[in-house]
Amino acid sequence: MARSRFAPDRGLTARMLVTMFLLGLLYVAFIGFFIVFVPRLWVLVLVIAVGFLLVQYFFSDKLALFAMHGRVVSEQEAPELHGVIDRICAMSDMPKPRVAVADTDVPNAFATGRNQDNAVVCVTTGLLRRLDNTELEGVLAHELAHVAHRDVAVMTIASFLGILAGLLTRFGLEWGLWGGFNDRNRNNNDQSTAMVLLIVIGVSAAVYAVSFLLTRALSRYRELSADRSAAELTGQPSALASALTKVTGDMARIPTKDLRAAEPFNAFYFAPAFSKGFSISTLFSTHPSLDQRLEQLAKISAQLGRGV
């Protein structure tokens, strides 16, 4: 993939490599566990896992648009939106991604796709109604920074691995409930079957928990990284800060039902969609706090003002 003018982030690159290495080790051990304890199931599990991973990787853009009810729009349908994307691509020396719009009042945006040539940037109608062009440029530069840093593809794979742990747990439970852990001659007793079931559940839960924590930590850092890169590229950190403040503030006015529908996709959104009141998701957020993001943008603004 060609380099862009978005500032490289060695810290993000290192974190992505470490996260994928640890997740890789974790899942090699996980598959090894199934080979040892559930020998009749591991081939099926491996085939399904590889199949799902390939679909997720190569069709992540289409799956994301379908799940979030987005549709690709032409320049004739959304000339102003395309114009902002064109300016950012010219500044960053990146190929233009496909441009999509999701018809929802939840103010947000996301980028997806395995590389720059297959990327799509989607904004919601709620975001377009609330932001001016300068603020919108900051948000879209943030999303294109994700594409330039390749963290979209990494998050897609990392998120899939967490889903896989849940699928394996379900397969293991169903196999055990139907006697899959017993031999054909039923020599194993119910107690040993129950023990294997408990081991499957425990190992799967542990794998899911570790995957969850690793991806959340990476997700929070990558958001700060995209904010930095977007602010430095556009030279207008205050516009991005204004957009963040507007979007976060307006989340409280969105119906709870709509926010809950959007929450599963928070890892890919510009700003998290939290339902009103306290939520367990605020404890393990996919994004850093608004204060952290605004503080970083204020520092960048001061540095640009001093010509640093």
TrEMBL record:
This is Protease HtpX homolog. The keyword Cytoplasm does not apply. Residues 76-299 form the Peptidase M48 domain. One of its GO terms (biological process) is proteolysis. It is a multi-pass membrane protein. Its cofactor is Zn(2+). The active site is at 143. Its main location: membrane. It comes from Actinoallomurus iriomotensis. GO terms for molecular function: metalloendopeptidase activity; zinc ion binding. Gene3D superfamilies: Metalloproteases ('zincins'), catalytic domain. Binds 1 zinc ion per subunit. It is an enzyme of class 3 (hydrolase). GO terms for cellular component: plasma membrane. Belongs to the peptidase M48B family.
